[in-house]
């Protein structure tokens, strides 16, 4: 989700990968020199919440399941909130609310939270109600989603070391935003459906996770095609 909430005020630099911020000789004037801006504090909170999420997931009682779902929802909300602050506080109040460190950390925090949640769900086979216990039901889309994130992180790092055109080729698009939205909703539903009173939400949650996995692969293909076009034009 972090890549989709990149700082609009410095979109090209951020979307080129974390390293682009560190290598940029002319950082955006909207970026604060402070390390702990408000968006960065919210991002650090998401990182700190990951081990708590893991701990509550294995608490086998109602409050453990509720806490796990609540932590994930809070992380998703703060991810949107820090992106909102970084984008609109700058425009409305001319304040430097973003930071290079925060721009680097934001996608890391999001990937940690999503990957941890997917792995946790894979450790406990989901009961698909009609189909019965199906161990691979969550594993397959999880591999697709995590694999895509690892690949795109490497691609953006490489693009940032090349030139501006390649960085623009891997800039966040609307397909990536839809991928992130469906992913967050799906994981929220799957975490909530661990409660016996909400088991009926499991099938739509799994279906939405597969939609998210499909969008993940599709967006990866789109990015790769854009990179190939840029490389072919250079020849």
Automatic annotation (TrEMBL):
Keywords: Lipid biosynthesis, Lipid metabolism, Membrane, Phospholipid biosynthesis, Phospholipid metabolism, Transferase, Transmembrane, Transmembrane helix. GO terms for biological process: phosphatidylglycerol biosynthetic process; regulation of embryonic development. It is an enzyme of class 2 (transferase). GO terms for cellular component: chloroplast envelope; membrane. It is a multi-pass membrane protein. Its EC number is 2.7.8.5. The chain crosses the membrane at residues 201-224. The keyword Magnesium does not apply. Pathway: Phospholipid metabolism; phosphatidylglycerol biosynthesis; phosphatidylglycerol from CDP-diacylglycerol: step 1/2; Lipid metabolism. It catalyses: a CDP-1,2-diacyl-sn-glycerol + sn-glycerol 3-phosphate = a 1,2-diacyl-sn-glycero-3-phospho-(1'-sn-glycero-3'-phosphate) + CMP + H(+). Its cofactor is Mn(2+). Pfam families: CDP-OH_P_transf. GO terms for molecular function: CDP-diacylglycerol-glycerol-3-phosphate 3-phosphatidyltransferase activity; manganese ion binding. Its main location: membrane. It is found in: Membrane. Belongs to the CDP-alcohol phosphatidyltransferase class-I family. This is CDP-diacylglycerol--glycerol-3-phosphate 1-phosphatidyltransferase.
């Amino acid at each position: 989700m972090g890549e989709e909430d990149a700082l609009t005020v410095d979109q090209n630099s951020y979307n080129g990968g974390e390293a682009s911020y560190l290598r940029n000789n002319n950082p955006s004037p909207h970026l604060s020199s402070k390390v702990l801006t408000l968006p960065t504090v919210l991002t650090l909170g998401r990182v700190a919440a990951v081990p708590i999420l893991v701990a509550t997931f294995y608490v086998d009682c109602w409050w453990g399941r509720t806490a796990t779902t609540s932590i994930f929802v809070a992380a998703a909300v703060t991810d949107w909130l820090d992106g909102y602050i970084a984008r609109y506080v700058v425009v409305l109040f001319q304040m430097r609310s973003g930071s290079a460190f925060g721009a680097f950390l934001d996608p890391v925090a999001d990937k940690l939270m999503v990957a941890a949640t997917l792995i946790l769900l894979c450790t406990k086979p989901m009961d698909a109600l009609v189909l019965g216990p199906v161990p691979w039901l969550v594993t397959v889309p999880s591999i697709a989603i995590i694999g895509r994130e690892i690949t795109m992180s490497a691609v953006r790092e490489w693009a940032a070391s090349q030139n501006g055109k390649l960085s623009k080729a891997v800039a966040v698009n609307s397909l990536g935003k839809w991928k992130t939205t469906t992913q967050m909703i799906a994981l929220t539903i799957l975490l909530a459906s661990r409660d016996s009173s909400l088991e009926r939400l499991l099938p739509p949650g799994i279906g939405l996770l597969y939609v998210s996995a499909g969008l993940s692969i599709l967006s990866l293909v789109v990015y790769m095609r854009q990179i190939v076009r840029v490389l072919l034009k250079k020849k």
